[in-house]
Write a structure and sequence with these properties.
Aldehyde Dehydrogenase, Chain A, domain 2; 489 residues; 15 helices; 2 domains
Length: 489
């Protein structure tokens, strides 16, 4: 594994003075590697390399660009275990989840490899006689990708693969907390035959490297996943210089459980959504809104399941839940648990670090009962294994509670009534909707993203994810033999 930055087809030690220590959150004495940070000067070098590489990559036929992505998928499949173990060691999620993330990334590579044959345009009838009209999609140029730590393989793949297959050249900044997985992805693109300068990776912090990318007029688009605070500021900066931008930010996802729900299925789905990946998913289930007639029966199932969770290092294949990613996130989650108790929530399970796990950033699966919509733990994103349970006496009240937050990423309902399902689908304010399953999950061919404060700009993944990295050109070909356009006979 390389520990520098990658610019113009070469690994090198960047010019920044800061060194980042890549630490295993399950055992803070385990230093995976040290990464010298890039600086704004390195951003400039990467932009120069990407600009120089763009004309040739743009002219490379889409199917051939797709074949490079397909080779990357084959290499990733061969190195899947290495990627998963690296991901687990630096991010903390259990090995089973890491392997699932790796396979999702490979599916995305395969999907976008095929999109090289399908860079869609349209042929449309003209109002004028003897005129042929059509549209074509073309690459933007140099684009910037800024990815988070919680899915350090899948999210960089679903940003980079469409950008590359569309013909753009890329500057990629991974999270400082998960640079090793990003380095492996870069090695895979290099081995797959990505031409020098087409894909460039800079390890560095947001205030310097991220800011330099956002402010660089040469970057025609920025794709960002991260916090609302950073995303909102980034969106303004990009708008000021006319760049395209997509921001995928926070979530506060609810599961509504109606009185007729299958409670065993609901509990299983909530369990996976709340405590899988230690709750560190933007699609995680952090709220349950349940009918009072079945609340206690559901709570009993949730508590029983959570008590069985084995907490520990993710590389131990018997572990069910790993640590949170670092000390800052650990302190944030613990603070929200304290806030929940102060606000009057009833802590019925968890809430602290397991006594036997003192060397990592571990938190027990935590469940609050008697939560009401005014509480901060009901409204604000925690990004940890904390579940808040509230009650609603009917669907209208449940929808009002579910919609009454600033976020709108994903939500789910458990019911057997088709009328209830259809009203829920129509009225819930989220970009993704699930029925009788968990709030988590996404597929390569389906758009991913939310509304309200969750996201701005185009959706990611699927055809929409590819379209973001293109501009649409409308073409008029007049074959009438006359210069003027004739709109009538």
């Amino acid at each position: 594994m390389n520990t520098g930055s990658y610019v113009n087809g070469q690994w090198y030690q960047p010019s920044g003075k800061e060194i980042g220590r890549n630490i295993n959150p399950a055992d803070i004495s385990d230093v995976i590697a040290e990464f010298p940070y890039a600086s704004a000067v390195d951003v400039g070098k990467a932009i120069e390399a990407a600009q120089a590489a763009f004309p040739a990559w743009r002219k490379t036929p889409g199917p051939e660009r797709g074949r490079v992505i397909w080779r990357a998928a084959e290499i990733a499949r061969r190195r899947a275990d290495e990627i998963a173990r690296t991901l687990t060691r630096e991010e903390g999620k259990i090995l089973k989840e890491a392997k699932g993330e790796v396979m999702k990334g490979i599916s995305l590579l395969e999907y976008y490899a095929g999109e090289g044959f399908r860079l869609h345009g349209k042929t449309l009838p003209s109002e004028a006689r003897d005129t042929f009209t059509y549209t074509v999609r073309q690459p933007l140029g140099v684009v910037g990708l800024i990815a988070p730590w919680n899915f350090p393989w899948a999210i960089p793949v679903w940003k980079s693969a469409p950008a590359l297959v569309a013909g753009n050249t890329v500057i990629f900044k991974p999270s400082e907390l998960t640079p090793a997985t990003a380095a492996l992805m870069t090695e895979i693109y290099q081995e797959a035959g990505m031409p020098a300068g087409v894909f460039n990776m800079l390890v560095g912090n947001g205030p310097e490297v991220g800011a330099a990318m956002v402010n660089a007029k040469e970057l025609r688009a920025i794709s960002f996943t991260g916090s609302n605070e950073v995303g909102a500021a980034l969106y303004v900066k990009c708008a000021e210089r006319g760049a395209k931008v997509t921001c995928e930010m926070g979530g506060k996802n609810a599961v509504i459980v109606m009185a007729d729900a299958d409670l065993d299925k609901a509990a299983l789905a909530i369990h996976g959504g709340a405590f899988g990946s230690t709750g560190q998913r933007c699609t995680a289930t952090s709220r349950v809104i349940v009918h009072p007639d079945v609340k206690q029966a559901l709570l009993d199932r949730l508590v029983e399941g959570a008590k069985k969770i084995k907490i520990g290092a993710g590389l131990d294949e018997s572990t069910d839940m790993g640590p949170v990613v670092d000390n800052q996130q650990w302190q944030t989650v613990l603070k929200y648990i304290e806030i929940g108790e102060q606000e009057g929530g009833k802590l019925i399970l968890g809430g602290k670090r397991p006594e036997q796990l003192t060397q990592g950033y571990f938190i027990e699966p935590t469940i609050f009962d008697n939560v009401v919509p005014a509480m901060r733990i009901f409204k604000e994103e925690i990004f940890g294994p904390v579940l808040s349970v509230a009650t609603a006496k009917n669907l209208d009240e449940a929808l009002r509670y579910a919609n009454g937050v600033e976020y709108g990423l994903t939500t789910s309902i458990f019911t057997e009534n088709i009328d209830t399902i259809m009203k829920f689908v129509d009225e819930v304010e989220t970009g993704m909707v699930h029925v009788n399953e968990a709030t988590i999950g996404g597929e390569a061919q389906l758009p991913f993203g939310g509304i309200k404060s969750t996201g701005v700009g185009d959706r990611e993944m699927a055809e929409e994810g590819l379209n973001f990295f293109t501009e649409l050109k409308t073409v008029f070909i007049n074959y009438s033999g006359k210069a003027e356009r004739s709109m009538t006979r």
